[in-house]
Amino acid sequence: MYRKLFESLREYITPSIKAPVYVLCEVVMECVIPFVVAKLVNNIRDGSSFENLLLYGVILIIMAFLSLLFGILAGNACSTASCGFAKNLRSDMFRAIQNFSFENIDKFSTASLVTRLTTDVNDVQESYMMIVRTAIRGPLMLIFSFVMALIMGGKIALIFLFVIPVMCLGLYAIARKAMPIFKILFERYDNFNNSIQENISAIRLVKAFVREDYEKQKFSQSSGALCADFTLVEKIIALNNPLAQFSLYTVTIFVLYYGTYKIITSHNLDLNVGQISSLLTYTMQILGSLMRLSMVLVMITMARESVVRIVEVLNEKPVITNPPNPSRNIQNGSVEFENVSFSYEHNSKFALQDVNLRIESGETIGILGGTGSAKTTLVQLIPRLYDPDKGCVRVSGVDVRNYDLKTLRDSVAVVLQKNELFSGTVRENLRFGNDNATEDDFSRACEIACADEFIQNLPQKYDTRIEQNGRNLSGGQKQRLCLARALLKNPKILILDDSTSAVDTQTDSKIRSGLRNSLPDATKIIIAQRILSVKDADRIIIMEGGKIQGIGTHEELLKNNRIYGEIYSSQNREESE
């Protein structure tokens, strides 16, 4: 798991190595300084000359300066390494998510992926920063200070051999108790973020139904539960500070009591004032390093669950990938379904079952059916957004699983049921369909999609800024803009998934006429709720319960298909009323 994580270090391995080296030099300086101070104290006590004392002072200043310099260098290297590591980690996760198929994305919620890219990476960054500096500094300071304490205090320094294990056992018990709670916390954190995301994205609906009080209450309950969990884990972790303080004061009292006793009874022969002062300094350094290590342990405990969640994303293998020797030539837009069955959760109920269908290149096909009849599922198999569980889907006579994914999806333009626009200008959103499109290409696509009518009335036309998800556009405007974006791909297969539901019937008719005249060779598959939108199609497919219940022209289906007849009668009756 950690090997996978540290693959993201790459160019930041060098500063990651430099930081501990600088920390080592800093620790050596800090451990030697008390030794020199003890010598200085003893020289003052013995009445040494001013020149000798001045020499010690100069040595201390130089050592303090070197300690400061190494500390600055260690801090810079540590910051570069941790921030760069986090940058690479986010990039690697984002690239992995971009390669996910729909089935992979369905496995993680949107809120969970956002939390992993932000909060979890931040936790790992802070932990790594502490590992390359504090976690290195702590053990080094512990070892060097203990060695120097033995040199200066002899047997009196053995007190640390009793205190250090006690403190380490206490810290281990705290970490072991806190670890399971963190796992639960992150799951609740995902649900909490998901709730916030849902509320903000649907804020217009909340206000329309006057449900603000209900949402506030739901948020308060969720926030309160999260607060209670965090409070519990913080209480457990907070025990490390009293434990460290108790150890520190116990050792200090022992050193002062026993040290003073030895000085008095031995008349400065076994122990002197300078040694006592340095021993107290080393006590602070040893137990201070243990306290810092306890902080590192807390951070690593918190970050471990973040590491698990991050590596889950990095290790997730895309379900849909390129074949070994993919085909990169699609000659026409013919589509064939042969004995196709598909389920969103494998081994569960089939959303599509035993579908057999042949669509000739250049045909216009309409698809009608009730909610849940798997109309969208059917067309999602064409650009390999999902793969069938049984059977195969062919485009231009070749199984879609044998095509290069980019080639296949460049040849298929899909205008989804839910219109997605990005923050940016109209021009930038259109270029999402074709980055090399010219102004003439924009005008042609927008004219076919009947989008030029409203674009020319915008304040800055193609340079008008669109807010997030097109909030400053109407539903019909968004649909037409998404259609124009798809047309810029100049596709061999154009799939419209109920993408003119928000436009009036006159505009819908103009769009269908434009598609028929401008894309005569492209296969056009139109999913619609209104019969008027598919009435002129070459063939109309009727779907129910994941199966094809009828195929034919408008006239043929009126005569022979009960479902189509009921839809037609119902819509005519509504229009008459």
Helices, strands, pairings?
Elements: H1 2-6, H2 13-45, H3 50-98, H4 102-107, H5 110-132, H6 134-153, H7 159-201, H8 203-208, H9 212-237, H10 240-266, H11 273-315, E1 335-342, E2 352-359, E3 364-369, H12 375-380, E4 390-395, E5 398-399, H13 405-411, E6 412-415, E7 424-425, H14 426-430, H15 439-448, H16 452-455, E8 465-466, H17 475-487, E9 493-497, H18 505-518, E10 523-527, E11 539-544, E12 547-552, H19 554-560, H20 562-576
Task: Summarize this structure as a short list of keywords or feature phrases.
577 residues, alpha/beta, six-stranded mixed sheet, 12 strands
Could you characterize what this model shows?
- The protein has 577 residues and is of the alpha/beta class.
- Helix content is 63%, strand content 10%.
- The strands form three sheets. The protein has a six-stranded mixed beta sheet. Strands 2-1-4-5 form a four-stranded antiparallel beta sheet, with no helix packed on it.
- Strand 9 (493-497), helix 18 (505-518) and strand 10 form a beta-alpha-beta unit.
- The longest helix is centred in the N-terminal third of the chain and has 49 residues, at 50-98.
- The mean pLDDT is 80.
Q: Uncertain spans, ≥5 residues at pLDDT below 50?
A: none
> What is the molecular shape?
elongated
Q: Structural class, judged by helices and strands?
A: alpha/beta
- Widest beta sheet: strand line-up: 6-9-10-3-11-12
**How helical, in percent, are the residues?**
55-70%
Rg, please?
35 Å
Rounded average pLDDT: 80
Number of helices, where a helix is a run of at least 4 consecutive DSSP H or I residues: 20
Number of strand segments? 12
Binned strand content:
5-15%
Distance between the ends = 65 Å
